[in-house]
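Reminder to self: keep the SMILES exactly as supplied, no canonicalising. Ligand is magnesium ion.
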Amino acid sequence: MTDATSVRSVPRRLNMSSLPGSLIVGIVLLAPLVVAAVAGSWLAPYPYDEMNILSRLQPPGPDFWFGTDEFGRDVFSRTLVGTGSSLLMGVAATALSLLAGVPLGLVAGYKGGRVGETIMRAMDVLMSFPPILLGILVLAVTPPAQWKAIAAIGIVYVPQVVRLTRAITLELMQEEFITAARLRGESATYILFKEILPNIWPPLAVEASLRVVFAILLGASLSFIGMGAQPPSSDWGLMISEARPFVEQAPWIALCPGFALAIAVIGINLLGDGLRALLDPRNTGAH
Amino acid sequence: MMTAPQAHPTLQPAAAPAVTPAPAPLLDIRGLTISYGNARGTLRAASDVSFAIRPGEVMGLVGESGSGKSTVAMAILDLLGGGGRVDAGEILFDGVDLRRLPAAERRALRGDRIAAVFQDPFTSLNPALTVGRQIAEPLIRHKGLSTRQAAVRVEELLAEVGIRDPRRVAASYPHELSGGMQQRALIATALGCEPKLLILDEPTTALDVTVEARIIDLLAKLCDSHRLSALFVSHNLGIVNRICETVTVLYGGVVVETGRTGRVLSRPAHPYAKGLVAALPRITADRRHRLPSIPGTVAKLSGAVTACVFAPRCPFAEETCRSQPQTMRMDEAGDGVRCWKADALADTPWPDEESGAARPPRALPQRSAPLVEVENLRKIYGANRSILPWLRRAGTVAVDDVSFTVGRGEVVGVVGESGSGKSTIGRALLALTEPSAGTVLFDGADLTERVKRGDQELRRRAQLVFQNSAASLNPRKTVGAAMDRPLVLAGKGDAEKRRKTIAGLLTRVGLPAAYADRYPHELSGGERQRVNIARALATNPDFVVCDEAVSALDVSVQANILNLLAELRDEMGLSYLFITHDIAVVSHIADRVLVVYGGTICEEGPIASVLRPPYHPYTEALLSAVPRLAEDGQETPRILLEDAAAAPGGRGCAFAARCPRKLGAVCDEQAPPVHETADGHRIACHIPLATLAERAAVFPELMEGDARH
Amino acid sequence: AGTLKVSVDSNLNTLDPAKMKGGQEYVAAYLIFNGLTVIGHDMTVKPDLAERWEHSDDLKTWTFHLRKGVKFHNGRDLEAEDVVATITRIQDKATGSTARVNFEIVESMKALDPATVQFQLKSPYAGFAELFGERQARIVPRDAVDTLASKPIGTGPFEFVSFSPGDRVVLKRNANYFEEGLPKLDEVVVRILPEAAAQVAALTTGELDLVWNLPLEAIDKVKADTKLKVDSVPTSTWDGVIMNNVVKPFDDPRVRKAVAMALDKQTITQIALFGNGTPTHSPIPPSHPYFNTDLKIAKGDPAGAKKLLAEAGYPNGFEVTLHTPAGRATRERLGLAVRELLKPAGITVNVQRVPFDVFLKDIEGKAGFYIDGFFSRPTIDTSVYPWYHSRGSWNTALWSYSNPKMDALLDGARQAKSEDEAKSLYTQVQALAVEDSPGVIPYVINHINGLNAKVKGFQSHPMMFLDLRNVSVD
Amino acid sequence: MFAYILTRLASLALILVVMSVLIFLVTQAMPGDVASMIAGQFASKEVVDAIAVKLGLDQPLIVQYGRWAGGILQGDLGRSLVLEQPIGPILMEALARSLVLAVVALAVVAVVGIALGVLAAVRRGKLTDQMVSGVSYLGIAVPDFFWAIVLVLIFGSYLQLLPTGGYTPISEGFLPWAAHLVLPVVTLVMMLLARIARLTRSSMIDVLQTNYVKFARAKGMPESVVILRHALKNALLPTITVLAIDFGLILGGVVVIETIFSYPGMGRLLLFAIQRHDLPLIQATILIVSAAYCLANLTADLLYAFVNPKIRHGMRAS
Ligand SMILES: Nc1ncnc2c1ncn2[C@@H]1O[C@H](COP(=O)(O)OP(=O)(O)OP(=O)(O)O)[C@@H](O)[C@H]1O
Ligand SMILES: Nc1ncnc2c1ncn2[C@@H]1O[C@H](COP(=O)(O)OP(=O)(O)OP(=O)(O)O)[C@@H](O)[C@H]1O
Ligand SMILES: [Mg+2]
Ligand SMILES: [Mg+2]
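Structure tokens returned for the bound complex:
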């Protein structure tokens, strides 16, 4: 359906003043990160993995704006180059959990009964597996790779997405526009994806923004136990984790990626809030 | 046949000097101006509102939805939420301007000297606290009672509002009580500290007619016995007529008329009040009549008032109306109107443009096979035959062995109290729920069976118009998209053609074609309901179930929709199953009516017969509970039903437990026999037909009309 | 007198000495148990449970005389049968002791009397007495072997009190210890503190008296604190860049040589150890008299390496995965340093961290290119022979290096009758090891302990043992 | 209600059975094996095989599972292959410590988080609200291990106020016990607070707009009563869910925090078991964690009923 009367998920007149404030702030915070993610390796003053034994653990200065780490690598360049993989970790893992979780949650909520119960109990089982073990399992079968860490984290978050989606679906199922759809003979697929799904996006946007953040942090924790990103990659989580022994001696090693992470976290959260508001057709710019 | 109100010859001239000094008002509101502000701007919800309530007086505050009734009530309580602000004016309570009091002192007044009861008992009680505790709170707070003393007082109060088992009720949680009991608990709370002023914001709107009647009676009695003053907010003119001495009519945040109830409702002076009274459906036997309605919608105000607020919708408006703000003209009797033409229009009724016009009489249904045949329909919810013993459950019987037919082009009304199974019947007819037993034949075919086999074609010929116009439209789809789908499913042409069809449908229900691009939240309630109807029509149905399709709407909007539905029936030969709890509405539109109670049909027949004796005892109670305007006839004594003690069910008559005319054990033990009269009027009751026919008519005027015809 | 609180950085798997694998466990082993002999601070073999020992001229029959009056912690006297039982147990494959290979040389053994035990060897071996100084070869009571893992009973200076996995091991003074007046401490608490920062913080606050194997990153901080001090000793513990000699492209000696040439050992020592170690050629540490001082320590010659690679058929270099065991910071740094230093030689290295259990199962001895490391051994022979002899136990599993010339040198050294002979043979071994480069051993590590100044009488042991006999806290 | 609990317990038992099979299969699929772990570096194949035989690892999986599950039904969690000790006591000790951590941390998180959430909701859009958001952002924006290290440095190294790690049983005195808990608890609180505060805030905002809150105000109840008695109880439902999930999370082990603070809880035990490939220990640990998690969920659901009588009613009915 692509004609003029097709479903529009965003309100028509998009002008700046009608954009939610949190969305704008979120975008402003995230824009430089996205640039860094795309062009980090060109923008970086040094190669991310270039060691310089003579200038290891240098404090911030004109040569190394944010100092160097224990190998004499430029912290700023590493942070820049690491943006891509760090954000990818969060975004891809979240996307994965949404991709798997939303349909399952929709079906569990729509079908109810035995199918729904089975799905929910399966999610309970999955949820009661400690996340690290899942991480280790996925990562340990074959050599670690980023996509595997992403897969592991994505799987860990599936149950929570399913729960949320199901809860909203159950609520929406009470709404009469679903009855109206059944009445005109829509298929279950259409009802799930065209009637219910668009109404799930706003709360899901908030949830997803939280998930992205948690995914980045869980990725960092996996790095902590040696399961996530592989050195010498400059994934932020890995960088901060590796900087631990030097927190006192050379706090700047952790500072730069920590800052970047904080900006990303806040930016993504604001973006989520803003998206929720934007996706709501009732949005009139008031927040 | 409704007539326009006649001007009363004894109306006092507006300039006559006061003779008797009126007692000082308890509540005197002067020039109250309230606005809601947010990022979008400000909305003036009340402009220069003035009125006074004398001690012991009950004043009704009426007006269209959104006219600012609640806003005014909340301002008195200092509970304007969400950016609401009083910009100007005084709220004198016992001579003291509440606005000048510090917040703590105002709070101390609340619940103590000024008490309130809100519209919806189901949401006004905290689900997490026992009812007794909630009633006791203000007693402990304001009267300094100990918990124990309060508990004693709570039981007294509950008894006072007519609850038979106060101790048990006090210990219950809200969800364990029926709506009527909850509302009584709220009233008991309000009465607890013996307030001087009671603010009632639509206290019965959420209740059943029979329950509503009881609550209104109770309130009238209490106001009388406690010499309470009350501000009674409602849009139900019948109830206002029943309980209020004076009435104030709000329109667009402005008081347009105020005066003694009898005068205002029988001879409204302001054009808006005229329209309001005219749009009210009356119990009538003449269902060919179209209701007068007020076209257009309320304009939202933001700035100062520079013209008559009603001018855009007023059929009498002139240039002056649009350029000059109106002033309130009061007379000594306390009657006042804000219209410079009021005197000139005193004898002009609200124009009834349609009722005069000749309409082609609808061809009477041929005696062919009925469109819908329902036989022995049963629906049991929640039965569970689990292998685990603790999971087994018998379930609730929502519909118990119901049979009826709907002819082609016929409108069948379904009335009954909440939970009696009306919606379930409707849903079963549309194959939205699977019957536990019985068959539903649609145009001779078993609909449920067809749908199960994946045949949606038949189903599209039976549609539904919902009560909740907001919930029945996907908030994320434009009107056009919502209407496009049925066409796509029916394979009705390409995008361009469908767009044309949609535009046609929108025009058909009286909406501009441009509305196709709007989202539901951009429409008013009446407009949304029109979209709903247009969407239902998109599949070209033969049969439409209207489940409380007009219950949530304002009288003037309701009149609009009712007219539209009647028109569609006449022009397209649609059949309706019209579910409602409003007898007046049913009497207005239905050919035949089913009275259901506890999942069974207790009375069925042509509308004219059902409204006249003989009555089923339940029908009689239901009809007697209908609130009416004074001019519609004499108030007949109400038959007040006790609250249902248990869900109906068992072997006997479903109504036995609450029946005021119960014969005895036979009612409990045997299913009632069905008495049938010549015109298809059927009553299921143990009482002989002759005895039933002895009762006086609830609507004697109908009998007169009968005689006249 | 007093209680000494010492930290180790990782949980102990077992307190059964035969099954021990990690340095933290050896700490406990040394405190609770004794061997027949002991390796002293000067790396020479000393009597321990054996008062004295003698061997036949052909170096094949060895007789040990046990010290009198030694009691196990459970009160029973030590007997020669316990020694036999201990070694038999180690020889049992199902025990899974890494010391088993050492004792494969034993043909038979018997207790001549309760105080004398005699070993018959399959071949002559001059260093047999030193084998009893090995970490796993602690003498255990033959009647209590089943509970050793959780309730060890030994003859050592400290008695086991409790072990709470993941948290601590508590030991108390053995009042019947055979060395008069020792130990001086009443109690030793070994705490398991995995995080370096927490260890150092605990040391500063006095919560700990001693941090065994102080994290290298923390050395400066401890040095700066006047209440604390750092005690360090060179060891022959080494890390290595392992190249599997039968896996392509490392089956070509030129490739291995090129890798070795490209690696600047001084730089590597700086990166991986922050300078707390010494570049070397082989497991023989520069501090040892046998160290070959004529050989040059590799300085890093990428151009030369490139040339060699071209000769070997890799003019454009190649790409290879280097596995490092996760959680071993030094080895991870070594891996990164290798990656960086091989880049100019045209070798692209992808570093891959592997969890330790996977490392043991799938990487060690199987992968082509990885980082590994080994604790110092009691003798030069045990430090070298197993890695370079074609039948050497580690060699066959590690890099499968085989050179008859090397075998001859090592076999000769085993039977060397004089120090000079041995020295000359080992000097040639080092030269050949550099020439053939079966792998690259960039450095030997210093063993460093951080301790509170109030800890008296402590000396770091080159075998990384924790010797607390003479230590006291006031 | 009783029927409800019975049903839930039955389904819990079922979940645990499924879990036990899953755990068993999944752990078997893990790379690495305990025999080579015990054998150590460069053990020859015969050695590994000999150990495997001794440990019974050579038998068919179904036999191994049967033995394991049978033991568990008799309350025997098996023996750790690496530690060579019965698992029961080790596990229970770790569980008890994790429990202490979970209970204390969650108590703090619940009290502080709910208080902050309520405060932010009541002062919506005001400075307080923004400050609460700010603090909670700070909590989640920085990884827990970073906080942990910073806390160790500040309170351990510099201020020398608190022990930096380890665990002292309460039997050795309340103060040492509490002192060892402070830092891990604070770190956990930083980590979990944000979510609780934000959640409480949003549901509180919803509840504050309900009719019954308005009615309570109309009764002249002071704000404190309105907020604490009328609104809060109804706003707590989502918060309770998340608290239960967090409870399961902490019980299941917060490896990073346990590692940094040398806290010998479930997380490190599990990590130890995984790293040593000690299957019986892994299996038992996960099973216990799962059971604890399910129980936490059940408790949350029962708490719902306690907080909301309507749900209590629903439980009776459904
Ligand atoms: N919190 C608010 N913020 C903004 N506008 C509001 C708010 N509350 C009410 N309004 C607007 O003020 C006007 C008056 O509302 P009010 O609730 O007083 O009407 P009402 O007469 O009680 O209507 P109803 O019969 O539907 O209850 C309406 O237009 C409404 O949309
Ligand atoms: N999905 C359901 N599950 C269980 N019980 C139901 C369900 N739907 C309705 N019921 C029960 O069936 C009975 C009839 O419900 P129904 O909705 O048909 O009544 P109604 O006459 O339409 O009431 P109202 O006027 O309140 O809309 C009620 O007791 C109701 O509680
Ligand atoms: Mg209102
Ligand atoms: Mg209904």
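Points to follow up:
Residues 82 and 234 of chain A are 5 Å apart (CA to CA).
The first helix of chain A runs from residue 21 to 43.
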